[in-house]
Write the structure tokens for this entry.
Amino acid sequence: MQAENAFSALFRKYRLKSEFETLSEFSEALAQKGFYYEESIFSHWQKGTRVPQNRVVVLKILEIFLEKRAILFVNKFSVKI
């Protein structure tokens, strides 16, 4: 349960810092990376009721946040903004 809450908080934080005002906008960005999901899954991610299980999807989410400059660099031990 702890990982779900951590993912939820970080997903919401960086989605908003990326200036994706809606989950639909985020969905479009992820679709451009080749991953198509129903928007309801992102709501679950934000609520902490589900987390993505596919490592490649998680990496693509990070890639999107990096491209949008919501995350400026990644340190071995922590994420700096």
Summary: The mean pLDDT is 89.
